[in-house]
TrEMBL record:
Record-linked InterPro entries: ARM-type_fold (IPR016024), DNA_alkylation (IPR014825)
Signal peptide residue numbers: none
Protein name, entry field: DNA alkylation repair protein
Ranges annotated as spanning the membrane: none
Entries under SUPFAM superfamilies matching the protein: ARM repeat
Amino acid sequence: MSVSPESTAADISSAVVAMGDADKAASARRYFKTGPGEYGEGDEFVGVRVPDLRRLSRSLRGLPAGVIIELLDSPLHEVRHLALLTMVLNFSARGSERESWVQTYREAVVSGRVNNWDLVDCSASDVLGAWLVEVDDAGELLEWAASDDLWRRRVGIIGAYAFIRAGRADAILAVAPLVIDDRRDLIQKAFGWMLREAGGRIDESVLTDYLQAHASQMGRTALSYAVEKLTPDQRAHFRSLR
């Protein structure tokens, strides 16, 4: 089934379902921890690969906000993922509706529609973070990072990636005190990843100076992610500070 920016949410959802694969869906349910008590508990998958969703999103560039909001209400993970990928494309078009897309994104996060790490990671920096770089205000990321909710906090961390890509470490360094003591795996990984990116994209001293001062406070996973691209001697040194 072909879809276009004129397609309805129902038609787009049907197209995603038609692309599904039962074996891939079963694997995704395990990978994204959808069992009882796990972080993705109850999420539904049909088994569509991310590259296929990205290709489909390109054919939906220009999809109206109302349809994207309908797609974000879907119980199917891949349909929500497609909605976010399409939102990123629409936001990146730099039209007059950019601020409106940011508000739509905020509402999607608050309402629990952006509720797994891949959904956060494909959208937080490219919509919310990019907008905050544009208006030169990282303060909102601190509000997200201060939340106890797993996904809102991850939005605050990953949103800082837009600032890192713009050559600015201020956002992640401001977020850091709010998340350094959180030992949840998905927060640890995101935090360490952003520190590593700041060191690689801006200046290694941004990372090493931070680690020299704070490695002793960091969780093992966050530190492991942060030092991944340093030399063996550097990695050994910072791990010895824990």
